[in-house]
Amino acid sequence: MGVGKGTGNRELGTGKPDSNPQSLTPSPASPSPQPLAPSLSYQDYVLEAPLQKGSFVSITLVWNRLVELVDKNRNDEYDVGEDFRDRGLNNLDLYLMRTEDNDIKQSIGSSISDVDSVEHIFHEIPATGRYKIRVQFRHQANAAIQPYALAWWTVPAHQ
Ligand SMILES: [Ca+2]
Ligand SMILES: [Ca+2]
Fold first, then answer.
1. For residue 7, how far is its CA from the centre of ligand 2 (angstroms)?
2. Residue scoring higher pLDDT (122 or 23)
3. What are phi and psi of 105, to 5 degrees?
4. What is the mean pLDDT of the chain?
């Protein structure tokens, strides 16, 4: 048992499916996560296996607040007495959607905090079928490219 996961521009890690059909197995998604740019605005991750009605999914998205060193003596290092400047937090949002849907108004679940650097969805699957995870670049507060890490845990439909 394991979870599908990905970070920044690395390859996806996938768990090994268990031979026991009653056990829970991960649903790896594709493609691998990429840093988001506003011009892209969102990235979808389609889960490979259909999900089981009545099961639950857990999805977590995290990213970093941007802080910069106020390098008073310009030596490119932190020295005692120097400070950091908070450049704010780009706003990413997280959605669970049916594969065929494209409008977030039709999403099954969402996590859309305006202020946090973490979004999390724990939600029951309403019908057996194909689902996808959407990471949305909601608002740019600092850099135009926003790396992030995304992890999920799902229950594939019974064979
Ligand atoms: Ca310095
Ligand atoms: Ca958000």
1. 18
2. 122
3. -65, -20
4. 83
Q: Which ligand is nearest to the CA of 94?
A: 2
Position 99 pLDDT exceeds 70: yes
Q: Which residues contact 123 (CB under 8 A, 6 or more apart)?
A: 56, 57, 96, 108, 109
For residue 119, is it left (φ>0), alpha (ψ between -120 and 50) or beta?
beta
List strands edge to edge, sheet with 131-139.
29-30, 42-47, 131-139, 91-98, 109-111
Rounded to the nearest angstrom, the distance between the alpha carbon of 137 and the centre of ligand 2 is: 8
Domains, the chain, ordered by start: 4-153 (2.60.120.380)
Q: Provide the token pair at 35.
A: 């840093």
Is residue 22 scored above 50 in pLDDT?
Answer: no
- Position 1 scores a pLDDT of 36
